[in-house]
Design brief:
- This protein is of the alpha+beta class.
- 45% of the residues lie in helices and 20% in strands.
- The chain has 22 helices and 23 strands.
- The strands form five sheets. Strands 6-9-10-11-7-8 form a six-stranded antiparallel β-sheet, with helices on both faces. Strands 2-1-5-4-3 form a five-stranded antiparallel β-sheet.
- A hairpin with a 5-residue loop joins strand 1 and strand 2.
- It is elongated and about 170 Å long.
Length: 828
Amino acid sequence: MNHQSGESSETAIDYLQLFLAHSTDAWAEYDITGQYLAINQAGAAMLNLSPSEIVGKTNARLADTGAATLGLDLAIQQVLTTAKSLTVIHHFSVEGECKFYEVNYTPVLVQGQVTRVFSMGREITQYQRLVKLAQTQTAPDEQHPPTNGSPFDAATLWNQPIVGAEMPDSDSASIPAAIDPSDRTYRPLTHPLTRQRTGYGLERADQMRRNAELLQVVLDNIPQYIFWKDRNSVYLGCNRRWAEMAGIGAPENVVGMTEYDLPWTDEQKVWYLKCDRRVMDTNTPMLRIKESQLQADGQTTWRETSKLPIHDAEGNVIGLLGTIEDVTDRKRAEDLLRQSEAKFRQLAQREELLNRLSNQIRDSLNLDTTLQTVVREVRQLLDTDRVIVYRFGQNWQGSVIVEDVISPWDSVLGDIGADDCFAAQYAERYLQGRVRAIDDIHTAGLDECHVQFLAQMQVKANLIVPIVIRNELWGLLIAHECRGVRIWLETDMDLLEHLAGQAAIAIQQAELYAQAQAAAEQARSQTQQLQTTLYELQRTQTQLIQTEKMSSLGQLIAGIAHEINNPVNFIHGNLTYITNYVHDLVQLVRLYQRCYPQPIAEIETKVEMIELEFLIDDLSKILSSVRMGSERIRQIVLSLRNFSRLDEAEMKPVDIHEGIDSTLLILQHRLKNRSNGTEIQVVRHYGKLPPIECYAVQLNQVLMNIISNAIDALDSTNLPTTRGNASGSVQPKTITIYTDVLPGDRHAVIRICDNGAGIPAEIQTRLFDPFFTTKPVGKGTGLGLSISYQIVVEKHGGNLKCSSVPGQGTEFWIEIPISQGDNPLHSF
């Protein structure tokens, strides 16, 4: 090898760097200390680093930063020690995924000494799987011999000839499928021996040859096949591997050759030249083009070729650099995988169908839907013309209950006539699990009557599988081929058998479901009757309890009112006389004081002792207080009588406001003078209500229940401080009562609101249920609001509803007709 000038060396290195930069494989260059001299982007990505983070460092140093490079360092040291190439499979975590790379380490020898090491790595994660798949598929065993019509035969595929090309990101329509060998469109513009006439000049061509010689030492040690050409597709050089593949002996023999001087086929020659023209005319690299190539030894192999344009200092394209890698095994494995995937995709589709039907059977229990899905999916998956479910009746005759058929074939749904050839012995065979595949009805040995019966349905081949339920032949699942004869495969039979089994399960479950539904319906009817009876009993019990309770309360209140009323009336009636007597006595004392201004010492002592003036003044105040107290007691007695209204059991017009005030008076002890020191304010906003026709006692009971609940709600609520109040005082607990007449003047409304904690939405729906309560045991019966609902809605034809927002309080809306002539319950 001749020594070249420094300028030539720099140009050669530029070519090499160009090649490495455009390579999609992981390339790296190391010196004899294992330090990175260069690495391309693909190589850096393999280590999850950038090229700038790697160059100038050793793998051991990179390992200190967390990079998984110790395996690389061991391989490099072995190559430096043995001066021999080495191929190692490494695994790295790339983007969170474990990937395998096959890395080839090649020493560069100068005068027998290693001066540097080149490495080239390619991801083989998927390829390893392909190889394993190929190994398992290439040797069929005796138990699973290849069958005619099977999706693929790996042994045949592995040995078949390969011809063609796969060109990424190219328009395949622009490349002829068959090229006339006599067509010289893509031959070089000039013969290599006269290329000095092309305008590039001998000097430039000589420069390129000198660069090529400098590259030779490096390129001969690279595991790829390398070549380079001038602008006219004339070879200027190659590495030793490419020369051996082309059968030209030494690499220097390629200089001056064209594709037509090499042992390619005519189609290959024109194809290669067209690719050259595209790269150089468009100034665009073509990377990883898969193409078949005829070698000098007559073997056709698959190569992965990349071609890169080479530029001069001004950026003009002056040639191209090509690299080739033998991917025959990989290409065959990929083809094998594609065919294998087709087979397993079909198996997966069948498995998915079985799973879907199983889920549908479990979920829907709808027999018609399930069977219709079975026949539709089977017809599509087997690509046949008609699939039916035939159900037996008496004497082994029956009808088609489900069908899926494509045009132009006739439908056979329903009664298809009698098949007199189907005898009991056939039924016995199907009952034992017989699956019958008829490839051709005319050559299957069928009785003539059976052939005619099938011909009437346009059937030329069919596949029959029994549907057996509880050891009885329920029916048949049948696939009809109408367009011609058909050889049924074992996979077809297996599919139909599995689906017949699923259909049997669906039918059995549907029958059990129908029986369960009938039993459930009967039980549901009985349960409904029991629930209605229980509800009526609860209502009756509630009404009896509350009626007795209110009757007792009314009698108690009436008795108390009577007993209190008598002495109060006595006191109230005598207060006038007492007042007059006291007035007269005071007047008499004043008269004595005027007539005897100087009483005896004993009288003066007594006056001072009893504080006569204070006594006279305070006696007047005491009499006034007694009068007010007696009036208060009389009002309480009147309110008690109004609340109980034992004399008003019938419906009559009453003053609603009077009932509200009476209720508040009875509950006064819970509103004022409370043990915790806080009071509940009651705010009344009374509208102008006419007398309301109602059951006064029952309506007072409703008011008592709702106002009592409002007090309970406020007792359990801690209100926040008043906004803007610097003293931090809490908001007052308040019950607000509104009354008004609704538009139309036919209904009155009473709204009772509190500013408590509110009622959760899930509880609001159950407020009026009997015996439902959120209060602790012993604090509430759960009857108050239920009875109130009955009184307002059922007794008065009104409406009782609750509106509450948690954290903002609760409002009860009581709406009743003003006159019971407007009560819809009394209009019949």
